[in-house]
Specification:
With 417 residues, this protein is mainly β. It has two domains: 264 residues, Thrombin, subunit H, CATH 2.40.10; 92 residues, Pdz3 Domain (Roll), CATH 2.30.42.10.
């Protein structure tokens, strides 16, 4: 059972899950002359105020020689200006943009050979169809190794799209297009991870140009950024912008919270799985989301590459991600709901999985988890953040409130099945 899965709360304990309402928009990933369906997933954006109701649609990207380490050069000077009563120092820093175009050209030249276009075909199941129909979706990917491993988004290769009239089966074919190469390369899916929206695919070819990976932890707001990918099937497309924000939290419609890099470099349908790169042509993120709403422009999001590394390494090694597991289903208790139900603020334990680490430690349904490893936790997201710092087999301390009394429990984390 997933620890952050939305579950029904026992009657009379907690009301419906509270929170702001957000409209969502599905992104369509299709191809001409094929059946058109909406693909992708939607997410809510709790930090949007002026565009409350904006939907996020899923978007994608590609490395080379040395590129200038600095995009702009500054010449710090100051002058004094006089008024009737005071003398004020004014910063007259001179900023030169003469190397901006040169930087963009060098970055594109470096990253594009490491970016691929991806086309995925799905069988369409519908009671209204008398013969087999195929739908297709397009995305992007980043070459990880010279022997054909490619990083992309899970939603690129695993649509999961359905409605009351149709559903899509598992991908029947994954095709990769390389830079300046019209050959269609058949790819196999190595592994996928829905929790992080990442996937690894592989083609049987060597001598590929692997992208150079950067350090997303060192990214600063205002830095140069370039998005590279396959928007609308237009392969080897780049757009340029800046880093708008870092550590931006975005919550999807399943209640999962992602910590992402925000950029104003244009990200469009088909960019999903592509690269967000810095002025050195190093990959700092995997383009995955954008805000799509009337009057909203330049709000795209990328998964930080430092967060992606341990995920794709496990996908390559194990074909899945091995995660430590506590074994509870819980609901977040805010102060109002807690007070109304004579409980404390924290995570209400709805159920405990049999034979899990939680059961063995003595956690019971009805407990409220208030701390993890001594750190106050109020949401499942915060609990999972602490848990994910551990490895399988590690000991973790959980503090619960049971009938008004706090109790500290030790549990040994097991592997999530």
């Amino acid at each position: 059972m997933e620890e952050n899965k939305d579950v029904k709360t026992p009657d009379g304990v907690i009301d419906n899950k509270s929170g702001k309402e957000f409209k969502t928009v599905n992104q369509s990933k299709g191809e001409k002359n094929k059946s058109n369906f909406n693909f992708g997933k939607t997410v809510a954006v709790p930090f949007l105020s002026g565009v409350l109701g904006a939907g996020i649609v899923l978007g994608t990207c590609f490395g080379v020689p040395t590129i200038k380490e600095r995009l702009v050069e500054t010449n710090n000077k100051s002058v004094e200006t006089s008024t009737d009563t005071t003398s004020t120092a004014i910063n007259t820093t001179q900023i030169s943009l003469e190397n901006y175009s040169e930087t963009g050209i060098a970055v594109a030249k470096k990253i594009l050979p490491s970016i691929v276009g991806i086309k995925v075909e799905y069988p369409v199941n519908s009671i209204f169809l008398t013969q087999q129909t195929t739908a297709s979706a397009e995305g992007s990917g980043i070459i990880l190794s010279e022997d054909g491993y490619i990083l992309t988004n899970n939603h690129v290769v695993n649509s999961g799209s359905s409605s009351t009239t149709y559903s899509l089966g598992e991908a029947s074919r994954v095709i990769v297009y390389l830079y300046n190469d019209e050959t269609e390369y058949e790819a196999k899916v190595v592994g996928t991870d829905t929790e992080t929206d990442l996937a690894v695919i592989k083609i049987e070819k060597t001598g590929l140009t692997a992208a150079e990976l950067g350090d997303s932890d060192s990214v600063l707001v205002g830095e140069y950024s370039m998005a590279a990918g396959n928007p609308l099937g237009m392969q080897s497309t780049v757009t340029v912008g800046a880093i708008s924000a870092v550590n931006r939290e975005v919550t999807d419609s399943d209640g999962k919270t992602f910590t992402l890099i925000q950029t104003d470099a244009a990200i469009n349908s088909g960019n999903s799985g592509g690269a967000l790169v810095n002025s050195k042509g190093q990959v700092i993120g995997i383009n995955t989301l954008k805000v799509s709403a009337t009057g909203v422009e330049g709000m795209g999001f990328a998964i930080p590459i430092n967060s992606a590394k341990p995920i794709y390494e496990q996908l390559i090694q194990y074909n899945k991600v091995k995660r430590p597991y506590i074994g509870i289903s819980g609901r977040d208790l805010d102060s109002k709901t807690a007070s109304r139900n004579n409980l404390v603020e924290g995570i209400y334990v709805v159920s405990v999985e049999e034979y899990s680490a939680a059961e063995e430690a003595g956690i019971k349904a009805g407990d409220v988890i208030v701390k993890a490893d001594g750190q106050e936790v109020k949401t499942m997201t915060e609990l999972n953040t602490v848990k994910n710092k551990h490895s399988i087999g590690d000991e973790m301390t959980i503090t619960i409130n049971r009938k008004g009394q706090e109790k500290e429990l030790k549990l040994t984390l097991k592997e999530q099945k």
